[in-house]
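Q: What residues go here?
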């Protein structure tokens, strides 16, 4: 299935997509080195064209992503009806010295007093000598809000019902 970049941009620029891209947690799905699927929650930030996640340099997901960089992301809400943003892409790994600005940004939404924030940042800087930025440029996206968009299987059922009713 080929998706044109302007179609991806249109989905990601929708107001609900923008709300979801402003959240702080995604679920990253990838194929582990043993060939089995993995799905892990991970903090992220959206820079307008890429999803950026940061992890430790010794994270078990890194060898798997080097072996197979194809990933899927889910960003969703916990209310009914849920709002779900699905994204697919390739993970590019960028090893950096120190703490990436994105890591500090993506963790900036958690409730902390200014004093707690200073302590947290000092702890982070003392723990990590570097990190890996996992950068995903979307190659496919779908928004499901259960009001204007539905899962494709449900859309198919609705189409089949309409065909039965009009026959």
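A:
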């Amino acid at each position: 299935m080929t998706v044109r970049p302007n179609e991806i941009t249109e989905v990601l620029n929708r107001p609900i997509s923008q709300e979801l891209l402003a959240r702080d947690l995604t679920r990253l799905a990838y194929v582990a080195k043993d060939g089995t699927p993995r799905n892990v929650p991970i903090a992220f930030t959206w820079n307008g064209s890429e999803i950026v996640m940061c992890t430790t340099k010794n994270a078990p997901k890194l060898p798997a992503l080097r072996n197979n960089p194809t990933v899927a992301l889910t960003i969703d809400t916990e209310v009914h009806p849920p709002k779900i943003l699905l994204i697919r892409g390739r993970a590019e790994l960028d090893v950096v010295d120190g703490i990436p600005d994105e890591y500090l940004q993506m963790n900036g939404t958690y409730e902390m007093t200014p004093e707690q924030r200073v302590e947290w940042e000092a702890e982070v800087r003392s723990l990590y000598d570097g990190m890996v930025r996992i950068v995903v440029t979307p190659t496919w996206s779908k928004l499901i809000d259960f009001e204007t968009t539905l899962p494709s299987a449900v859309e198919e059922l609705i189409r089949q019902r309409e065909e039965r009713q009009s026959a």
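A: Context that may help when evaluating the design: The first helix runs from residue 5 to 12. The mean pLDDT is 92.
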